[in-house]
Amino acid sequence: MAYIQVVAGLVLLVVAGDYLVRGSVSLARRAGVSKLIIGLTIVAFGTSAPELVVGVDAVLNDAPTLALGNVVGSNIANVLLVVGLPALIAPMVCSAPRLGRNLVFMLFSTVIFMAMAFGGVFDWTQGLILLAFLALFIGYSIARRKACPIEAAKELEEMEELQQKPDSYRLATTFVVLGLVGLIFGADLLVAGAVEVARDFGVSEAVIGLTLVALGTSLPELITALVAAVRGHCDVAVGNVIGSNIFNLLSIIGVASLVGPIPVPDSFLQVDLWVMLGASLLLVPFTRARSHVGKKAGAVMVLLYVSYVVYLAQSAESASAMGMTL
User: Fold this and answer.
1) d(CA 55, CA 70)
2) Among the residues of 212-259, which ranges form H helices?
3) Among 13, 134, 216, 285, which one is most buried in terms of CB atoms within 10 A?
4) pLDDT higher at 320 or 180
5) Residues near 29 by beta carbon (within 8 Å), at least 6 away in sequence
6) How many angstroms separate the CA atoms of 263 and 168, rounded?
7) CB 178 within 8 A of CB 16
8) Do the beta carbons of residue 34 and residue 211 sit within 8 Å?
9) Model pTM?
10) CB 8: neighbour CB atoms within 10 A?
11) Judging by beta carbons within 10 Å of its beta carbon (0-12, 13-18, 19+), is residue 143 exposed, middle or buried?
12) pLDDT at 265 over 60
């Protein structure tokens, strides 16, 4: 039953997240909200909605390390898989200057996040700081887009091409309601199933969060990146990953830590956080002008992710065997 809950939860999260974004964008357009604000807020928050709801639900169900594992694991998967897999299909050329600036902020957010993690716990004070940095990022992004109308117009054109929205007001409202309900039920199913699976395999909730939950909640970004790669929009694919990682670090743990404290296991301080930072640094060469993510680079990224998952599985097995011996 636990495995059915996990699969059903993941499916609900992916579908509900998509419905929520499409319905919210349509309603915002009808309310007169500019495309610029929609792209930088509703769409960005929407793609991170599955991780956000899962994080809050995990804290409420006394599984806070699952929330932390989900964020760290999603950021690792976003870089190594969401960028790596599309590159295997079609090498992507990156040239937009905004990618480099956003990458700098993502790396800055990652370092701040790690520094807080070494304090041993994320509580409401750290949560407020993370959310303040998120507000700063959104405000800066809006100001910069308004100062560069040509760049903003190109980005919005690509967003419109990749985003199908309902035209009817009633249908858009239905999409939003269904999306919210689906996210809540999907998160509850996923967290309950993931905790049960962790117990069955004798591994920690953190490991399940880093792997199964993280990979599942990264599916919307992966699907968007695959579509963008096929259409030759590397800027959209890589930009989506950078934006999603920023929102994951700042909004998900920021909001979840307001609900309850999130302890940081020693394994995160020793390995997982550093893997997240290393994966983030891999994007630096690919955001330079006229650089590209080729098939070889994509294969290396996917291989690194598989190696990381194998390491987690072996570490969990060793920990389980040690526990049985004791």
Assistant:
1) 7
2) 214-217, 219-230, 234-247, 253-259
3) 13
4) 180
5) 35, 38, 165
6) 45
7) yes
8) no
9) 0.80
10) 15
11) exposed
12) yes
Checking if the pLDDT of 152 tops 60, the result is: no
Backbone angles phi, psi at 198, to 5 degrees: -60, -40
| Tokens representing residue 151 in the block | 């760049």
CB of 257 closer than 8 Å to CB of 122: yes
**270 Cβ contact list (under 8 Å, min separation 6):** none
Higher pLDDT, 326 or 176: 176
CA distance 95 to 81: 21
Is 77:273 a contact under the CB 8 Å cutoff? no
Gap between the Cα atoms of 290 and 96, Å rounded: 9
pLDDT of 149 reads: 59
3-class secondary-structure state, position 164: coil
Q: Which two tokens stand for residue 238?
A: 């890589």
Instruction: Give 221-233 as a DSSP string.
Output: HHHHHHHHHHTT-
Q: What is the identity of the amino acid at 32?
A: G
CA nearest neighbour of 259 among 83, 57, 105, 110: 57
Query: Which pLDDT tens digit goes with each residue over 231-264?
Result: 666 666 677 788 888 888 999 999 999 999 999 9
CA distance 147 to 85: 34
For domain 2-325, give the CATH superfamily: NCX, central ion-binding region (1.20.1420.30)
**Where do the structural domains in the chain lie, given as residue ranges?**
2-325
225 is written with which tokens?
């990146």
With b meaning 16 or more CB within 10 Å and e meaning fewer, what string describes 22-36? bbbbbbbbeeeeebb
Q: How many CB atoms lie within 10 A of CB 62?
A: 10
30-89 pLDDT tens trace: 666 655 556 556 666 666 777 788 888 888 888 888 889 889 998 999 888 888 887 787
Local structure of residue 260 (DSSP, 8 states): S
Residue (of 4, 26, 13, 9) closest to 220 by Cα position: 13
pLDDT digits (tens, 9 = 90+) for 302-313: 999 999 988 888
Res 287: pLDDT: 67
Q: Which residues pair with 93 in a beta bridge?
A: 292
